[in-house]
Design goal:
The chain is 39% helix and 18% strand. It is an alpha/beta fold. It folds into 2 domains: 4-165, Rossmann fold; 215-337, Dehydroquinate synthase-like, alpha domain. The strands form 3 sheets. The protein has a 7-stranded mixed sheet, covered by helices on one side. It has a two-stranded antiparallel sheet with strand order 7-8. The protein has a two-stranded antiparallel ribbon with strand order 10-11. The structure holds nicotinamide-adenine-dinucleotide. Nicotinamide-adenine-dinucleotide binds next to helix 2, helix 3, strand 8, helix 4 and helix 7.
Amino acid sequence: MTIHRIDVHLPEREYPVLIGHGVSQQIGQWLPTTARRAIVVTQKEIPVSLDLPIESKVVTIAQGEKAKSLSTIENLCQEFAEMGITRNDVIIGVGGGMVTDIAGFAASTWHRGTPVVHVASSLLAMVDAAIGGKTGVNLPQGKNLVGAFWQPSAVICDLDLLSTLPARELRCGFGEVAKYHFLTGDDLLSLDLDERVARCVGIKAAFVEQDEHESGKRAFLNYGHTLAHALETVGNHQLAHGEAVAIGLIFAARLAQALGRISLDRVDYHELVVGKTYSLQTRMPEDINIDQLLAAMARDKKALHGLTFVLDSPQGLEVVADVPADIVRAELVRFSQA
Ligand SMILES: NC(=O)c1ccc[n+]([C@@H]2O[C@H](COP(=O)([O-])OP(=O)(O)OC[C@H]3O[C@@H](n4cnc5c(N)ncnc54)[C@H](O)[C@@H]3O)[C@@H](O)[C@H]2O)c1
C-alpha cells in the first residue's frame, strides 16, 4: 500500500498530510499526544468509523451550506462543553470541505484554540479544503465571511472513502483539481487519480508554506473563486462549490482575454481542461441576476480595492484589483448568453 506523506512546513510548526488507501485506520498515530478525549465532527451520510485509542464522542452536523453557520458552531461548542473538551484534547473533522471548515473553525475558537485533525472524505476536501488552515462559516450575505486561520495537527486523505462519494460530489472535487492545472505547469493528466491527488496536495502545501495568511501568492488558490462564490450565494447554493469553481475558471479566462491579458487559445485550453477533461458545466445557470452577482463579488473578501480577480497572464496568475465594473458586467452578460 503506497502512502504519500507531504509535510506542510510553516514558520512555527509543521504537520503531515497522509494520502493513501485505508490510511484513516492509522489515525491513532496522528493525534496530539496530550489528547485524552476526542470529539468527532461529521455528518450522518459519511460512512467512516474511526478506531480511536482515546475516549471519544461523535457529533453530527446537518448537510448543506445553510448549515455552515454560526448556529452550528454554537451547537458544537455546547457539545464540547458537555464533554469537557480541553485545549489538550482534540477535535476530529471527518467529512468534506464543509465539515473540515466547521470543525476547524470550532477548534480555532474553543478555549481560544484546540488541536484539530482532519479526515478528508471528499475529493474536494482532500485536494484543497482540509489543508492550509482556512476555516469558517457563511452568513446570508456571503460565503465564508466569518472565519479564522487555524492549522490542523494532521490531515488524512483516505482514498478508499472516495468509493462512497456521490458522483456529483466527485465532479465537484474535479472543479478544484481543474484549478491546479492553471497554477503550475504540471502535467496532471499524465498521473493516475491517486498520484494526482497527492500532486494537488503538494501544490497546495507549497502555496500555503509561502504565504500562510494569504497576503500574497496564496490568493492564487482562489483562481475562479470570485465569480464562484457569488454564483453560490446569489444562486442560493443550487450550484455546489466545485461546480461554481468550474464556471468561475472559465469566466476568469474570458475576462482575462477581454482585458487583453491572454489569447483565445488560452481560453480554449481552460474549456478543454474544465469542460472536456473533467466534464464540468462551463456556462452560467440561466436566469441568474447579473446585478446581484456584481454586488456579491464586490463583497468578496479579496475585494479590498474594487472588483478583484485572480487572472491569467503570459507570466502566470496574478491578483488584479480594481477591474472596471463595466468590463466585468459586459463580460458577464456575454458569458450568460454564450
Ligand atoms: N478551507 C478551504 O481552504 C476551502 C477550500 C475549498 C473549499 N472549501 C469549502 O468546502 C466546502 C465544499 O466541500 P465539499 O465539496 O467536500 O462539500 P461537502 O463537505 O458539503 O460534501 C459534499 C457532500 O458529500 C457528502 N460526503 C462527503 N464525503 C463523503 C463520502 N466519503 N461518502 C459519502 N458522502 C460523502 C457530504 O455529506 C455532503 O453531503 C465549501 O463549503 C467550501 O467553501 C474550503
